[in-house]
Write a structure and sequence with these properties.
Length: about 350
């Protein structure tokens, strides 16, 4: 039987296991309605008991919905029964699809707002606790301003640094919120009922138009890793195209997890080179396999960063990280029309 924990992880749901049940942060059903923050990790559970005849049974004490694992996937992903069964069959240690398949979201533009309580101000104006945490993680005042980073002292995202995820038009489509007080749940992402656009990656707002994507894009899982890469490589790369134009950019893209959405793959395919900077762990290896299977063919190239001692980008010394990225760029951009300097 498909492990329920893997299903919740692939759906991007925050969850905790207690005995034979997985409790999610809030009910993920789009029909649930407004959530009560006081009921966090208390309303919705799904069973993961292999001794049961039908593991995956779920129930919400608030909206009273419940059913089978297949029905759960149908509701959360908005698909039919056959598509839900096919999606569940992909969970586990199986190779990703050998080709890139692109589908389009028929629901159109979504309305999304950051939760109440998020404040935006220069880093110097932050409270000392989040400011000290940001300093330990290397976050600079320039990056706070450049990426519109916020901080929350109340509301759903209380005691978290908030990284808004904006699309190429600057529209906020999602968020990633990192605790600065050592909450057991390190990261929070938007729940399904908030209607985030899961096809948008952090970093997109700085991408150029399609016809100007001559340089590589660095792909990672968490925003803090991307900010570390940005600091380490700032001003170090210039991409010269066939017409002599020089582009001084190394583009960034955060997956926000190890499962690579087909729409994100389609966007990454518009770059001539993908630098795979996903974490050196099991989740990162799964994300890397998807990137290589879908993008590492023909003109598009994928180069994996060889992290030492299982350290991710945010844990590496900036000079070492810069050299590692530089070698990956030189290895990958081995084409007549694009030269890495």
């Amino acid at each position: 039987m498909t492990p329920v924990g893997s299903v919740l992880d692939k759906l991007g749901l925050q969850s905790r296991r207690q005995g034979r049940r997985w409790w999610t942060e809030s009910c993920p059903l789009p029909t649930h309605g407004p959530q009560n923050p006081a009921h966090r990790f208390q309303n919705f559970f799904i069973r993961d008991d292999e001794s049961e005849e039908r593991p995956g049974q779920w129930h919400c004490f608030s909206c009273k919905e419940g059913g089978t694992l297949v029905k759960f996937v149908e509701a959360v992903r908005g698909c039919n029964r056959e598509e839900a069964r096919a999606w569940l069959a992909t969970i586990g240690d199986r190779p990703p699809p050998p080709v890139l398949r692109v589908r389009f979201d028929p629901t159109g533009p979504r309305t999304f707002r950051l939760p109440a309580g998020v404040e935006f101000s220069p880093l110097a104006g932050w409270n000392s606790v989040p400011r000290d945490y940001a300093a330990r993680r290397g976050l600079t005042a320039e990056q706070v301003e450049r990426w519109g980073v916020g901080v929350a002292h109340e509301g759903k995202l209380k005691d978290r640094i908030v990284f808004p995820i904006r699309d190429q038009n600057g529209r906020v489509a999602n968020y990633s919120a990192r605790t600065f007080v050592d909450d057991p749940v390190r990261y929070l992402a938007a729940s399904t009922w908030e209607r985030p656009d899961l096809s948008v990656m952090w970093g997109e707002e700085m991408w150029p138009s399609l016809g100007m994507r001559f340089g590589p894009v660095v792909v990672f899982e968490g925003v803090l890793n991307g900010l570390a890469i940005e600091r380490a490589t700032a001003g170090q790369f210039a991409m010269r195209t066939y017409d002599g134009a020089v582009h001084n950019e190394l583009f960034l893209a955060a997956l926000q997890g190890s499962d690579v959405d087909h729409r994100k793959l389609a966007k990454l395919a518009t770059f001539p080179l993908v630098i795979d900077a996903t974490d050196p762990d099991a989740a990162g290896a799964w994300a890397s396999r998807q990137l290589f299977a879908s993008l590492g063919r023909r003109e598009r190239r994928v180069v994996r960063l060889p992290y030492p001692d299982k350290c991710d980008a945010a844990e590496l010394e900036p000079g070492f990280l810069r050299e590692m990225v530089a070698h990956a760029v030189l290895e990958g951009l081995n084409r007549p029309s694009v030269v890495g300097i």
